[in-house]
Amino acid sequence: MEAEAAVDYLVDERSKAQFDIDAMKIIWAGGKHEFEVSDRMARLVASDPVFRKDNRAILDRKELFKNTLRKAAHAWKRIIELRLSEQEASKLRFFVDEPAYTDLHWGMFIPVIKGQGTEEQRKKWLPMAYRMQIIGCYAQTELGHGSNVQGLETTATFDPELDEFVIHSPTLTSSKWWPGGLGRASTHAVVFARLITDGKDHGINGFIVQLRSLDDHLPLPGIIIGDIGMKFGNGAYNTMDNGFLRFDHVRIPRDQMLMRVKQVTREGKVVQSDVPWQLLYGTMVYVRQTIVADASCALSRAVCIATRYSAVRRQFGSQNGHETQVIDYRTQQSRLFPLLASAYAFRFVGEWLKWLYMDVTQRLQARDFSTLPEAHACTAGLKSLTTSVTADAIEECRKLCGGHGYLCSSGLPELFAVYVPACTYEGDNIVLLLQVARFLMKTVSQLGSGERPVGTTTYLLRLEHLLQCPCDVQGAEDWLKPDVVVQLFEARSARMTVACAKSLSKFSKPEDGFMDLSADLVSVATAHCQLIVVSKFVEKLQQDIPGEGVKQQLEALCSIYALSLLKKHLGDFLSTSCITSKQASLANDVLRSLYSQVRPNAIALVDAFNYTDHFLGSVLGRYDGNVYPKLYEEALKDPLNESVVPDGYHEYLQPVLKQRLRTARL
Ligand SMILES: CCCCCCCC/C=C\CCCC(=O)SCCNC(=O)CCNC(=O)[C@H](O)C(C)(C)COP(=O)(O)OP(=O)(O)OC[C@H]1O[C@@H](n2cnc3c(N)ncnc32)[C@H](O)[C@@H]1OP(=O)(O)O
Ligand SMILES: Cc1cc2nc3c(=O)[nH]c(=O)nc-3n(C[C@H](O)[C@H](O)[C@H](O)COP(=O)(O)OP(=O)(O)OC[C@H]3O[C@@H](n4cnc5c(N)ncnc54)[C@H](O)[C@@H]3O)c2cc1C
Predict the structure, then answer these.
(1) What is the CATH number of domain 1-52+54-63+75-96+278-457+475-638?
(2) For a Cys staple, 245 with which of 107, 176, 353, 625, CB 3.0–4.6 Å?
(3) How far is ligand 1, taken at its centre, from the CA of residue 283, in Å?
(4) Which residue range or ranges hold the Acyl-CoA oxidase C-terminal domain (predicted)?
(5) Whether the Cβ atoms of residue 102 and residue 55 lie closer than 8 Å to each other
(6) Kind of pairing, strands 155-159 and 200-210?
């Protein structure tokens, strides 16, 4: 009886939607074709028993890893059998939803050769990598240095006699430590090392190094290699073989140095090509951009679970003869709906960032390097902002699901454990925000010299206006005007940037100022990145948005995104005199009415993500809302429930119980 009632809750919820959900699915997917590919790949994975994942939390590390190898091999078999395109294959791997060595092979090893190899090197290595005849990883981080890439210690010393490089780990701290896929699977790595010729250090560069034999997978001479051990969470990221690696004078031919940025001639002369040296960091720019796109996936997944469960779950009160659905509590809405809005916001900013990345790549090919600093600042900043918000949001969604959110069968603990390292890998989020701050300070300092800010910093051209313009909100409805909101976020970012720049100018050494003011600089960078997200959401809404009611829903979500940020960072907006307390109070009223507007559409808005139950991996987030019977089913599958009397009863429980009986008799 109760189970049927739970199913009814979601059917009823879906009937309340005020927009065309199929049209919204296409907007979310980024187009009709993208939707079709994504939908087909999700179903393909969900219907294949090899890709089951409900047992990850109870497998031990060895079983877990072997199972990941099995899944990756099966995925590859299906990709070949079905002749999947690159786009389809990457979607298939995405829906397999298990961190694996293939992520690094396709996501970093191939891109680093593409981006930093010469044409000849690409011709030699990429076909083998595309066919998976070799498996590669990205070995940059060391035991002693991750954030500080210039501090890496591994050396690549040129030996002109044999026309070879000698790769060596001179210290314990120079051991490579962390690279995914390195521990067990990879046959090759792109290793970042200090280039030494003729006793001179020329800074870091990438080198292709074979690690294991292609015949028996044994490490090659001079290579010490292994897995770095269990990581946070049970199943979670432990499917990945993050590894360590030491080199004892390992020799590689000269042509295995990636030579797009720097070349070493046969005589050992180092030649710097005309591309900026920062292209050595280019793979990180590429991956940061993919991480932003991925943030909306992880966030939407958590939000989908929490929203569906909030509609099924009832506590207290009275609503049509039942207790109240927890989604109807204002507190639940004020915690959940900003996260729903953020999922859509991150989706659109991710789309835009993909475009920006393609644009900068095309420019680089045409030898126009002018937009590289902006691309670096945007990818670094948005990677930082979106992953931090998403990690916190997954945890908030767990709490929004009450006690049941803490069960592995809710899907949320594993999602959190898998996701949270995104705040650290591919650049620690604070270190990356400091890069954005540095870029902003430089942009502001160059304004006087006639240098025109580009792209996302163009608003700084209107600095004089932004430093004194009042916020154009007289009545509550003004808060729904996109240009009013965008200008407000510009004013806040501009005022915080200028205030920090002024404080910095008081230091005789800029590095000292940067150290002392770093916490403020991080706030400045955050404000700038939030402005980017808000304005890209607004720009999206200026495009043609087909489908009945779709645009109205997105407008409401855009306003929720911006106004909930305003509420969260009220201190910034008030202390920079961007708004008055009266205007803040009006914004709060508007937020409440926006929550009421979204409420009947909430389930349809998460259905638009089009996630299968397999992908969600959550009893609480099931499409049919049939939560309670399925929680029982999952509980009964636990190994502890295999026998009625537990293992260990005779050894450890019975003696205790007997002793208690004896005590009672005394
Ligand atoms: C579909 C595919 C999906 C694939 C996804 C797979 C996911 C798998 C999961 C995990 C993978 C994780 C992999 C990793 O973690 S790899 C290791 C990542 N490591 C880092 O990110 C290190 C972070 N550190 C740095 O990037 C740098 O050290 C630094 C913090 C930027 C500092 O650099 P540096 O010491 O050189 O100092 P400066 O700050 O002075 O910078 C000098 C100038 O260079 C400019 N710069 C910096 N970075 C870049 C860049 N990336 N691009 C362009 N320009 C850059 C900087 O702005 C300075 O310029 P200026 O003009 O001011 O001199
Ligand atoms: C799951 C996972 C997968 C990974 N995969 C790979 C991979 O495939 N290949 C690879 O090469 N690496 C990989 N890494 C390594 C990763 O890139 C680094 O861990 C990351 O760049 C952070 O560097 P770190 O560990 O040196 O942190 P640290 O720099 O030691 O950070 C420690 C603390 O110091 C702070 N800090 C550091 N510098 C500054 C500063 N200048 N100002 C203010 N605060 C600062 C940080 O904010 C942080 O709070 C992976 C890491 C993880 C967790």
Answers:
(1) 1.20.140.10
(2) 176
(3) 9
(4) 482-658
(5) no
(6) unpaired
